Automatic annotation (TrEMBL):
<feature type="transmembrane region" description="Helical">
    <location>
        <begin position="397"/>
        <end position="428"/>
    </location>
</feature>
<feature type="transmembrane region" description="Helical">
    <location>
        <begin position="99"/>
        <end position="116"/>
    </location>
</feature>
<dbReference type="InterPro" id="IPR001902">
    <property type="entry name" value="SLC26A/SulP_fam"/>
</dbReference>
<feature type="transmembrane region" description="Helical">
    <location>
        <begin position="206"/>
        <end position="227"/>
    </location>
</feature>
<dbReference type="Pfam" id="PF00916">
    <property type="entry name" value="Sulfate_transp"/>
</dbReference>
<keyword id="KW-0472">Membrane</keyword>
<feature type="transmembrane region" description="Helical">
    <location>
        <begin position="348"/>
        <end position="377"/>
    </location>
</feature>
<keyword id="KW-1133">Transmembrane helix</keyword>
<keyword id="KW-0812">Transmembrane</keyword>
<feature type="transmembrane region" description="Helical">
    <location>
        <begin position="177"/>
        <end position="199"/>
    </location>
</feature>
<dbReference type="InterPro" id="IPR011547">
    <property type="entry name" value="SLC26A/SulP_dom"/>
</dbReference>
<dbReference type="GO" id="GO:0016020">
    <property type="term" value="C:membrane"/>
</dbReference>
<feature type="transmembrane region" description="Helical">
    <location>
        <begin position="26"/>
        <end position="45"/>
    </location>
</feature>
<protein>
    <submittedName>
        <fullName>SulP family inorganic anion transporter</fullName>
    </submittedName>
</protein>
<feature type="transmembrane region" description="Helical">
    <location>
        <begin position="51"/>
        <end position="68"/>
    </location>
</feature>
<feature type="transmembrane region" description="Helical">
    <location>
        <begin position="266"/>
        <end position="288"/>
    </location>
</feature>
<feature type="domain" description="SLC26A/SulP transporter">
    <location>
        <begin position="22"/>
        <end position="391"/>
    </location>
</feature>
Length: 532
């Protein structure tokens, strides 16, 4: 038995380490690493936490969460959507150590959510909303990274909200960037975009990942412009903390304050983080599955458990709360990632860069990294997607557009919430308009109307059925047929029986066919099969 388990485990690992997968995953991990590095630092800065906390969270998200997760392409780390919560929580709790206790407890809450199968909520997000979220993120990437590509933006790299921490908003930051651009940054970002677009078209050159070429050219460009009037400033370069010894490295870790474990404020912060982080994770997971070329389905409950373990680990070491992040995940997909090896490797690269090559990493211009995200943003918000959603009909296109506008103009979670509300409106509207089918037959001076009810008639259909019945002319024979109906709501049954009772006053004869006195709610097979 033991040998068979070992063989099974070995075959599982071997599946991820196949040469074909590694050829795709390792280059993709470099892209994700380059995208994640400044995002981790920027989010830590905006959250009022040490820069090391952001990097640590990215490392844990890559190595720990990706190892446990059932998703092959999702990438976890500190999320811009949590910055406001984190900043306010550190202030309200009075110490960073108390906040770390809240992060640990948030992880425990997520473990519980995963164990009670709460992850299935992710299956109820409409396709139009998920597509809108992806397109909105793509537009946000383009709008937020243009200032970095032009060399002007005082706010942190990766802000995903319309209103920024530096007092600017998305549009004012763009306007400011066009007025105070940097020649060196524009040259580097323009060359980077050209390389990203055309390099993969040459098969012989494509052996070397285009983003790696972009970074090398970015460093070279920064060196060439140094000493000139167009030289890049420190604020236009990546900046990670430099560790000079093992003692200095281990001194960066911070333990949570366990004495606050039962503090009501800590528990409330933990619950808030758990709910928001879980929602953002499930949204990201659904979106990544949608753009996965192999169309794999990720187990949502297992993802919540993985996120819980990740947040417990991050909080115990001094890191920030994390989620599955759509920006990094979509960069992983667009870079050709195939398995979770890509996400795990990006976490290891973050660790190695911090330990061994911080001085080299700090030579990378933000403008060449912005170019990578600009190309990713274009792929997410391509014009063909808008055309495709338009051709699917207004009930799909309007929730899609509303979600895009909400994500771009407010933030990710609120934008998705608004899109969900509009999508539900169209769902209810469609449901109310299609509760029945009826046929009119002329026989002499009398009209015969047969109304065939739908398979399921809910209380939402009551109003439209009453409108139909009230409009039937006098001296008509009406047959209401429930042969196709598995379920008719009690309110609708009552309305039908009341109509039959009162219709004789108008000379209307009502006949009920195949309609039971009561209906039980249809049983649903709730057994959920998840990937191991």
């Amino acid at each position: 038995m033991k040998n068979s388990n070992s063989a099974s485990m070995g075959s599982g690992i071997g599946k991820y380490l196949q040469k074909r997968n590694l050829k795709a995953d390792l280059p993709a991990s470099i892209v994700v690493f380059l995208v994640a590095l400044p995002l981790c630092l920027g989010i830590a800065l905006a959250s009022g936490a040490p820069l090391f906390a952001g990097l640590l969270t990215g490392i844990v998200g890559g190595v720990v969460v990706a190892s446990i997760s059932g998703s092959q392409l999702s990438v976890s780390g500190p999320a811009a959507g949590l910055t406001t919560i984190v900043l306010a929580s550190i202030t309200s709790l009075g110490s960073y150590q108390a906040f770390l206790m809240a992060v640990v407890l948030a992880g425990v809450f997520q473990l519980i959510l995963g164990l009670i199968k709460a992850g299935t909520i992710g299956n109820y997000f409409p396709s139009s909303v998920i597509e809108g979220m992806l397109a909105g993120i793509g537009i946000l990437l383009i709008m937020k990274q243009l200032p970095h590509a032009l060399g002007v933006d005082s706010d942190f790299f990766g802000d995903e909200s319309f209103f920024q921490k530096d007092g600017e908003n998305t549009f004012s930051a763009l306007a400011n960037a066009f007025q105070h651009f940097s020649v060196a940054a524009i040259a580097i970002s323009a060359l980077s975009i050209l390389v990203l677009v055309f390099w993969p078209k040459f098969k012989k050159l494509a052996v070397v990942p285009a983003p790696l070429v972009v970074v090398a050219l970015g460093i070279l460009g920064a060196i060439l412009f140094s000493g000139s009037s167009s030289a890049l400033k420190d604020s236009q370069m990546v900046k990670i903390p430099e560790v000079n010894s093992a003692a200095e490295f281990f001194g960066l870790f911070t333990m949570p304050d366990f004495s606050t474990i039962f503090d009501s404020k800590v528990l409330m912060v933990a619950l808030t983080i758990a709910v928001v982080a879980s929602l953002e994770t499930l949204l990201s997971l659904e979106a990544v599955d949608k753009i996965d070329p192999l169309k794999r389905v990720s187990p949502t409950n297992r993802e919540l458990i993985a996120q819980g373990v990740g947040n417990i680990t991050s909080g115990m070491l001094g890191g920030l709360p994390m989620t599955a992040v759509i920006v990094r995940s979509s960069a992983n997909v667009n870079a050709g990632g195939r398995t979770k090896v890509s996400a795990i490797s990006h976490g290891l690269l973050l660790l190695l860069s911090l330990l061994f090559i911080p001085s080299i990493i700090n030579m990378i211009p933000l403008s060449c990294l912005a170019a990578i995200l600009l190309v990713t943003g274009y792929k997410l918000a391509r014009i063909s997607l808008f055309k495709h959603m338009y051709h699917k009909g207004w009930d799909q296109f309007i929730p899609f557009v509303v979600t895009v506008v909400g994500v771009v103009g407010i933030d990710l979670l609120k934008g998705v919430g608004i899109g969900m509300a509009v999508s539900i409106f169209y769902l209810l509207r469609t449901n109310m308009r299609n509760p029945f089918f009826y046929r009119v037959q002329e026989e002499g001076n009398k009209k015969n109307i047969r109304i065939k009810l739908a398979e399921e008639v809910s209380f939402l259909n009551k109003a439209s059925i009453q409108v139909l019945l009230s409009g039937i002319p006098s001296e008509t024979n009406v047959i209401i047929d429930g042969a196709n109906s598995r379920y008719i709501d009690p309110d609708v049954l009552e309305a039908i029986h009341n109509y039959k009772h009162n219709a004789y006053t108008k000379g209307i004869i009502v006949t009920l066919e195949n309609i039971k006195k009561t209906y039980s709610v249809p049983k649903i097979n709730t057994k959920i099969v998840e990937q191991n």
